[in-house]
Amino acid sequence: MQPAITLFLLILIKTGSRLLFRFREGWVGGRPENPWRDVRLVAILNHTSLYEPIYAGLVPFHFLVRIARHGLVPVAAKTMRRPLVGRFFRLIAPNVVPITRRRDHTWSEFGESIGSDSLVVILPEGRMKRATGLDSKGRPMTVRGGIADVLLAIPEGKLIVAYSGGLHHVQVPGQRLPRLFQTVWMNFEELRIEEYREGILETHDHRHFKQGVIEDLEARRDRYCPTPDNPEARKLARTEEDEHERTIDVEQEAG
Fold first, then answer.
1. 87, burial (CB in 10 Å: exposed 0-12, middle 13-18, buried 19+)
2. Terminal CA-to-CA distance of the chain, rounded, Å?
3. 73 with 10: CB under 8 angstroms?
4. Which of 141, 222, 238, 253 is the most interior residue, by most CB within 10 Å?
5. Which residues contact 165 (CB under 8 A, 6 or more apart)?
6. In whole angstroms, how far apart are CA 214 and each of 127, 229, 243?
7. pLDDT in tens, 55-80
8. Global pTM?
């Protein structure tokens, strides 16, 4: 029963997002063939809002089915304690694990929850960027080391890195209602988990693997997130969308 409820909610979010927002999508290196097949891990960088589920508008329905059946999402225990928000997050995936920002039993429980069919969706920064560009305590946004543990726990499959353009123009943390009909930006990159892991280990030994992952993902975030102050990354998203629209036009003319 739970997967059916989750899938219904995800489809509702996707449909509503497509109606209420305009999306700009790009792929680093060009859109690969069947990018949403065989995905084991999705890492969303540049965490700015609890409204990020609207990014469901960018993924195909078959991927939502996989999330509904096998999704595993770590969510901050602080967020899960909120009555309405906590209940909502428990409904968007069959396995939502509350975690703290400390290396305690919650991370061990999350690691033990990763199965052979799990599709992990994680926000590696672990907290939201405020309008100042810093976190709630005034610190720069950094990637936390927990994603390195996930990369070691999943032997193979695809890693999709989702580079968010940010949602402060839709909803700033603390603001109750979102602003609708905004343009939402996202770039994606497809990587093989085993190849990515080996690439990090070529420059960092096992003792420093976590630091290597942090440095790499922060560099990729700063390069590819299509934020207002990153016009090159926005140009990538715009170009990909225009190519997609031209493809549709050519197909319609041919038909």
1. exposed
2. 41
3. no
4. 141
5. 24, 46, 184, 185, 186, 187, 225, 226, 227, 228, 233, 234, 237
6. 15, 22, 33
7. 999 999 999 999 999 999 988 777 77
8. 0.89
